[in-house]
Amino acid sequence: MNIEDLHNEFSGILTFLENNGEVSWRTMADENFRKVLLIAVASHFERSLRDAMSNFAKEITGDNHPLAYLIQKKAIDRQYHTWFDWEKHNANQFFGLFGNAFSDSMQRKVRDDDSLNSSIRAFLEIGQERNRLVHGDFSNFTLEKTSEEIYKLYSDAKEFVEQFPQLLRSFIAD
Questions:
Q1: Are 164 and 51 in contact (CB under 8 A)?
Q2: Which of 99, 147, 149, 167 is the most buried (most CB within 10 A)?
């Protein structure tokens, strides 16, 4: 199930509960839905970027190259949350992992492209909220964002996640 389907299904459940006067059930369902949506979005982005990096390494080195294996084991597997400084409002730490020239290029690109900048900020906000949720007693954590705010962050952040592999390839091609 993709994020859009998950959002639509849960929205339908909430509407059903509201239309049937089940205010308490709707409130409880919405509390849990917001948490599930946030985790689903963060997980989806993690998988997307990890897969993109793995595919990129294999493109450069070849599928069975020992360097691709090393990159997978030491730079990708269980390393995703170290790629970003989730507290900052930029992806400079992540860009820096690819070298100074790439980092400088991306920082210029982000400075010149308001949409990309906003997308990165939304992406980092999702990661930061995810960390607060999973490290802050999930069952008792109060998520202050509405499901629609989380879905909007997802929609905005998708641009960065979807564009990044091509931005990396474009840099290599130049």
A1: no
A2: 147
DSSP output for 15-57 = HHHHHTT-HHHHHHHHHHHHHHHHHHHHHHHHHHHHHHHHHHH
How far the first Cα of the chain sits from its last, in Å, is 37
Max CA separation in the chain (angstroms)? 60
3-class secondary-structure state, position 9: helix
| Residue whose entry in the numeric block shows the structure tokens 């990309």 | 116
Average pLDDT of the chain?
95
Structure tokens at 21: 């006067």
The residues spanned by each domain of the chain are 46-173
Instruction: Tell me the whole-structure pTM to 2 decimals.
Output: 0.93
Q: Taking each helix axis from N to C terminus, what angle separates 114-134 and 23-61, rounded to the nearest 10 degrees?
A: 120
What tokens were used for 132?
């607060």
Element (H, E) at 152: helix 147-173
